[in-house]
Amino acid sequence: MIIAKNCLVTLDYTVFDTENNLLDSGATPLVYLHGGYIDIFEKLEKALEGKSVGDSIHMHLAPKDAFGEYRNDLVIVEERSQFEDDLEFGQQIEMVFSENEDEEIMMVYTVSDIQKDKVILDANHPLSGLSIIFDGTVIGVREATSEEIEKRLYHNQEEEPLVEHES
Predict the structure, then answer these.
(1) I need a surface site. Which of 13, 20, 33, 71 has the fewest CB within 10 A?
(2) Per-residue pLDDT tens listing for the chain (167 residues)
């Protein structure tokens, strides 16, 4: 079967930076719903269109095509007193902001620095600003069930992945 819209695709993959440092070993295969569901980077999805089991891709992705450019506006400085004493470097913190009474935005920040009286929080993806090399091999392709497609459509509204994947 070839990869086309509404196929569930499974990839073995690795991700490196441009200096050949391993960023993700792909210990767990990547499973995604093909066809514009925003489950993987657009350029990867286009490269995989028409491929089948055993086919491989090797792609260089600029930051704008991968995890995005690093954005300084996603870095905030907060008073140290707003946080518990056991705050740690690298810890993730969810913060909710209200644009108005009806709309709240939840952001996940990573503690990037702890100073005596200030904490630096960064909502950028850890790989933002990096060009990456993605190597992938198709190890599975099948037609998605109607339930899987419905689940993906529902989750796109919630911006959650179809398949949980830990890197």
Answers:
(1) 20
(2) 999 999 999 999 999 999 999 999 999 999 999 999 888 999 999 999 999 999 999 999 999 999 999 999 999 999 999 999 899 999 999 988 887 777 888 889 999 999 999 999 999 999 999 999 999 999 999 999 999 888 876 555 444 444 433 33
Q: What residue type is assigned to position 121 of the chain?
A: L
Looking at this protein, which amino acid is placed at residue 113?
Answer: D
Q: Tokens 């899987």 correspond to what residue?
A: 148
The pTM assigned to this predicted structure is: 0.77
Domain range annotation of the chain: 7-68+128-158, 72-122
Pick the CATH number of 7-68+128-158 from 3.30.565.10, 3.30.420.10, 3.40.50.1110, 3.10.50.40: 3.10.50.40
Strand 30-33 to strand 7-17: parallel, antiparallel, or no bridges (unpaired)? antiparallel
What is the rounded CA–CA span in Å between residue 158 and residue 5?
21
